[in-house]
Amino acid sequence: MRVSRIQAAENRQTVINVASRLFRERGFDGIGLKDLMEGAGLTQGAFYKQFESKEDLAAQASRRALESASERWSAAIAENPDDPLGAVIAFYLSAGHREEKLDGCPVVALGSDAARQGPGVKAAFEEGIKAYLEVLGPLLPETDGEDSNRKAMVVLSTMVGAMTLSRAINDPDLAQAFLNAAVEHVREAAAA
Question: Which residues form the signal peptide (predicted)?
Fold first, then answer.
């Protein structure tokens, strides 16, 4: 049965959405095309009509995941305009976010995998990380000649590192201690 262009476009978006979640849960190499397409409710044969390669899909799924994450940051800020940095910190460095494997931060879930991928995936991550910095930068005051972009890099690195370490260990108290330490450090860095 032939699929209309509209249905094909919808199918493509479904595959990208499903892949963005499944890649975060299992890694780029932790899931095959057959399982990705089944997750989207399509056959493996449909994949090759929609994407050049698995790397092409990985780049598009990464872009989608990073855009979604950036939108969540913006939504947190909009919900708490009196303390926008506090809103980002509360959302990002939370136990709930630590447990969110499918919809959590793609930099935490896939950052080390992305480093081993091709230029398409790396470009998607670069764009997404720059978007994170564009959100964080205006929330951080410039002080002592240190510009807000540099501070945003430090804050982002701290938050991603703390979340990564928090997810990598079994001890819930130690996992929470990493998040708490990062919250304290980020607030101090923002105030300094």
Answer: none
- For residues 103-111, average pLDDT: 94
Q: Which two tokens stand for residue 125?
A: 């991550």
The one-letter amino acid at 120 = G
From CA 19, how far away is CA 106, in angstroms rounded? Answer: 12
- Quickly state the pLDDT bin for 190 (edges 50, 70, 90): confident
Dihedrals phi, psi of 146, to nearest 5 degrees: -85, 120
**55-191 CATH choice from 3.90.650.10, 1.10.357.10, 3.30.450.40, 1.10.3470.10:** 1.10.357.10
CA atoms within 13 A on the CB side of 19: 27
Write down the H helix ranges in the chain: 5-26, 33-39, 44-50, 54-79, 84-92, 95-99, 106-114, 119-136, 148-168, 172-191
- The structure's pTM equals 0.89
